[in-house]
């Protein structure tokens, strides 16, 4: 296996069969070798810096019904909330004072937030904090909507592709959702000029090593600026309530593969990773990640944005989250930097 890992390190890609073999047959020793090369590669571009993004979860209303997600429309137990523009601006004010220079506005696909409202929010943030990047993560839209947000000042957009396999996608989503539309969205976003992030869950129900290999090939082809991955974690009020969660081990391995496949990519150690293991985010950084995303949402709504069970950080103020992550990164020899943290290459 070491040979394949060396090949990935020098060529930054493998064939589908080679990815499948690595994903399905690696040992713990192979994984450690992968992480050592992933860290080496990441250092070439980003040194020991870890970027922070202030996450604002501004609505948990969603018109979609993804089988895995705790805020799916059919979940009658979810307590719904949305933040108004003023609440969002207060989050930014607090975040800016703490040093954040990227705000990520994440929400369900909530029709209340029309293009006009989103553009109004984006342009107010950009005019009050011109030194900050605004990232949107609000789902699938049409080209003209993406265009309008970009013209209003949005810099980046996160839209996880969830799985590169249309067949697998069909088992995670109701039939009214379309895999090809989701992929089209990512290409639209790129062509408009956004810094784009795709991503997927590791260990989602029915996922095979072949699916993960196809995710790697898709990521290589799209060549996004960011890739967000985390373990699937079951949520008790969803159709997948009894499905097994993804593992720490497999998520770390995929982080390492992504780092070697896209050397310059911005790769978060996600909250979901921190949820399945107390040191998940630290381990994520040591497997090749270089971004963390502390939560800036008001504590009053934190416990309502529950995509999955046992989510961490739901009782902590923004400052506590930031300090906590700063200490955690320091404990493994990394520096949290508050710069905008644009992609090193693209
Ligand atoms: N477990 C882990 N991640 C989840 N997401 C949604 N539901 C879950 C879950 N149960 C992820 C999806 C989505 C992102 C915002 O959160 O990949 O794109
Ligand atoms: Fe939120 Fe540790 S990062 S409490």
Q: How would you sum up this structure, described in words?
A:
The protein has 346 residues and is α/β, with parallel strands linked by helices. The protein is globular and about 55 Å long. The chain is 45% helix and 12% strand. Helix 6 packs parallel to helix 8. The strands form 2 sheets. The protein has a 6-stranded parallel beta sheet. A 3-stranded parallel beta sheet has the order 8-1-9. It has 14 helices and 9 strands. The structure holds 5'-deoxyadenosine and FE2/S2 (inorganic) cluster. 5'-deoxyadenosine (5AD) binds at residues 68-69, 160, 162, 201, 230, 232-233, 235, 272, 307-308.
Briefly, what is this?
The chain has helices at about 1-10, 15-25, 30-45, 85-95, 115-130, 145-150, 165-170, 180-190, 210-220, 250-260, 270-275, 280-285, 300, 320-330; strands at about 50, 55-60, 100-105, 135, 155-160, 195-200, 225-230, 290, 335. With about 350 residues, the protein is α/β, with parallel strands linked by helices.
